[in-house]
Amino acid sequence: MQWIVGIDGGGSKTAFSAMEIGSGKQVRMRSASICPQDHGLEGYGRILADAFCRMGISREDVAALCVGVPCFGEYEGADEQIRQQTHRLFPNAKLRCENDCYVGFAGAFGLEPGINVVSGTGAIAYGMDSQGNAARSNGWHPDFSDEGSGAWLGRACLGLFVKQADGREKPGRLLAIFRERLDICTEMDAIAYYQANCYNNRTELARMQEILLQAAREGDLSARRLYGQAAEELAASVRAVYEKLHFPGQVLVSYSGGVFRAGETLLGAFRELLSSKVPQSRLVEPRYAPEDGALLAAAALISFPKIIIREDKGRKND
After folding, report:
1. CA-CA distance, 298 to 146, in Å (whole number)?
2. Are residues 125 and 84 both part of a single domain?
3. For residue 204, how far is the Cα from the chain centroid?
4. Per-residue pLDDT tens over the stretch 34-68
5. Could you tell me if 118 and 249 lie in one domain?
6. Domain-located, residue 74
7. Claim: this prediction has a pTM higher than 0.90
8. Angle, nearest 10°, between helix axes 264-277 and 209-217?
9. Range of 240's domain?
10. Spatial strand order in the sheet of 114-119
């Protein structure tokens, strides 16, 4: 049997959504990130091949596939290499390689117009209007962009810890939570922890955001303020996309990525700022997970009839 497959390749993980043509059987799975910048082309291919083996799907049986790849569309030479490697892996498939922000958008709106903002390991906003014009904002590079992302908040968490340890910021719950979660004996041990775990490792840096979130929920005002700053950056990213496109009336805005699991700690401020920056917007929950958006885009490549997706709601912002 043949398969239609959607893949969301984020900075920390990769999520798969596959549907067997004919039976409608659906398979979901997760693997490590396929980011070519982190693992190279060989690693990209190896992780994908291993995932299909684990799903029990022959790569030769894939009829259509859409894959969201971190950093795709940003390096012209690398883009062509990714396309060629993907074609070698799936020789019989109609293929669509996109930046992972596209599959987040596709899932949020089921390929309909709108603007989706992603805050996961990285951060980016992507939108499309009814004329098919597309635009993006943020997400340029982890060293000088990705404002409002998990890695950005993780770095801010470290910065807040040292300020509270110094007394430059009023000590809050973050100090104790940081020590407990990282199991460090002295404040200076944070340096060794960072060097061993977070330096040049965006995934681990983004996990530091979980410490910041706990502190914010336990009343640390400085931690809460950082989520407000993240919301400001994400709302500004949506505004930038809105101004590049044409939405004659109300525009739907949605969100995806693991940082949004912070719930109202982030969404409350984001909702308020969005209504100010884009008054014509309406914030809605994502319709599907990003990998399901990729599945819909893959189905469109072969004009496959409407797919009924058996939703896994827990993965929409994972």
Report:
1. 27
2. no
3. 15
4. 999 889 999 999 999 999 999 999 999 999 999 99
5. yes
6. yes
7. yes
8. 90
9. 114-143+228-283
10. 134-137, 123-128, 114-119, 251-256, 281-283
